[in-house]
Structures are given as C-alpha cells and as structure tokens.
C-alpha cells in the first residue's frame, strides 16, 4: 500500500523563481500564476534569473509586510533537485516567518540546513510530491459519477491546462465538476491531489480510484493526465491513470510544434487516429464505453490567430472531433460534444 497527499498551503504565495532563464523551468510557478493569480502576491528572483511572471519582485521582508504566508518553489528542473544557491533564500524565508512549499523530488527536509531552520523557526516544510495516506491496488470496480481524463501524444503538451479549462467551462454552464490534480503544479492550484509520479507502480491505478471516487450521476471529475502511452519513459504512469480513472471521456492533447517525442529520443509522434485508437483500447479494459470527445491543440507557436484557427479546423476535419486551443480560444466546442454524448 502507498500513501496519498492532501495539501494545506496557506495563501497568499510568494513564487520563488531562482535564477532560471527559461519559462519551461518555471512551469510550476507559471501554472499557479495562470490559474490562481489572485493568490499570488509576488515573485522572488535570484541574480541572473530572467523569467518574469509579471508579479511584483519582493524581498522576503517585503513579502512578510504584505501578508504573504507561503513561499512556493516554482521551479521544476530536470531531476527535481534543490540547487545549492537556493538554500539561503529558503532558510531566509523560514526565518522571516514564511512556510515553504515544494513539489520537487528532493525533499526540503532532506537538506540538513533547511530542516534545522524549520525546526528552529517552527515553520512548515510542505512537500506536495510526498504521499502520506494509504493507497490500495486498483480494483477495476465501476464507480458512480462521470470522469474525463486528459491524455497526450507526448509529455508536457497541455494536459493540465486542458483539464482546468474544461472544469472551468463545465462550472460556467452549471455542471458539477472538480479538477483532480495528479502533479505538483496541479496540487498547488487545487489544494488537493496525488503526485502520481511518486506512487509505487502497483498502486497507481488505486491512487487514481481514490482521486476520483464515487459521486452523483451528474458530477464530472476532470482528471489531469500524466505522461503518454507513446513515451518510452512514462507510458507506465499513463496506463495506470487510464485504468484507475475509468474515463467516460478522454481529450487527446498535442503540441502542434512537435513531430518527435520530447527529450533525447528519435521516436516519431503517432498520428491522431493511432493515438485515439490506442487510448480507447486501453481505457475500455475498465470502462467499455470510454471514448475520445475532442482534441486539445497547443498553437502557441503561431502568432496569427487566423493561422491557429486554420490548424484547428484542419485537425478537426482529420479526426472528426472538435479541436480547441484551451488558452487561446477556450474549450467550448469540446464541452459541447462532451455534454451531447452523455
């Protein structure tokens, strides 16, 4: 068995950006700012850091004076480690009276100087990636309520943003819906979830069942996907989510810039028909009625909205499914199709 995570991160937040120079390395902070901007009071950057989220640059003293409660490590670097040059700022935050929250693989409490500072100051170190309660292996038993899972042609293609946009659109229409987070940024955004990549493989499907439990027949759990069935490193976590979520509906997410898999790989991304068929076949083990209801396309590389709309239209014709860019144009057409079919 393995434990689950429920977080209690007190806002307002100070987003720690360190010295990163690429927004992709600050995706945790960027996601929090995008979806919970009202909780963000400022950002803290180290010398050399060029990523700017448009928040006030604050010192630790200024952050406390403005009522900020928690400094969140907003960086998701390769390997998920705590860089040596961050430690002074983390200790400084604790000494200033802030809690510090992190979604990195390396635990804050495993750095002796940080652990000692937390003990000395009585402040919290919040590790959202570390499980606490108990999971069981997946049962495969049918549960009441409805579930949508975002899935990907590759990693980091917009599964979280798509799920959040769908939850927002459903709620706007008066439909009961909850975003279910499966990664560090999603947990910070929603305040609840499971960092699936920290769950032992045997318990991933059980964690997904816990995350999306029985509910009323008219309620949608919108579950954030992870990885991709087509990625040699991360297909396992994806399959566990597919089986445990038992999705009634899936949305396939894709970054339109990519033709090969992210990382040091020379694997081509399969076409949409292959992706759709593979995800549906996998999902029907635990839900024989599982289907794909739309395509979410990241068109951020296109500067012109007309070009972006043309690409969405081409993809919609190719797949016979509604195709949306959730950030640029919203997910209304996907939600229309979802509600028509349920």
Q: Which homologous superfamily in CATH is the superfamily of the largest domain? A: P-loop containing nucleotide triphosphate hydrolases
Q: What count of domains describes the coordinates?
A: 2
CATH names the topology of the largest domain as Rossmann fold
Mean pLDDT: 94
Tally of contiguous helical segments: 11
Low-confidence stretches: 1-7
Number of strands: 13
Protein name: N-acetyltransferase DgcN
InterPro entries: DgcN-like, DgcN-like_C, DgcN-like_N, P-loop_NTPase
Domain D-glutamate N-acetyltransferase-like C-terminal: 138-335
Domain D-glutamate N-acetyltransferase-like N-terminal: 53-131
What report would you give on this structure?
This is N-acetyltransferase DgcN. It comes from Steroidobacter flavus. InterPro entries: DgcN-like, DgcN-like_C, DgcN-like_N, P-loop_NTPase. Residues 53-131 form the D-glutamate N-acetyltransferase-like N-terminal domain. The structure is a single chain. This protein has helices at residues 27-36, 60-65, 87-96, 112-121, 159-172, 184-190, 204-211, 235-245, 272-283, 305-319, 332-340; strands at 5-6, 13-18, 40-45, 70-73, 99-102, 125-127, 146-152, 176-180, 192-193, 219-223, 249-255, 291-298, 323-324. It is of the alpha/beta class. It folds into two domains: 5-127, NAD(P)-binding Rossmann-like Domain (Rossmann fold), CATH 3.40.50; 146-340, Rossmann fold, CATH 3.40.50. The strands form three sheets. It has a six-stranded parallel sheet with strand order 8-10-7-11-12-13, sandwiched between helices. Helix 4 links the parallel strand 5 (99-102) and strand 6. Helix 1 (27-36) packs parallel to helix 6 (184-190). The longest helix has 15 residues, at 305-319.
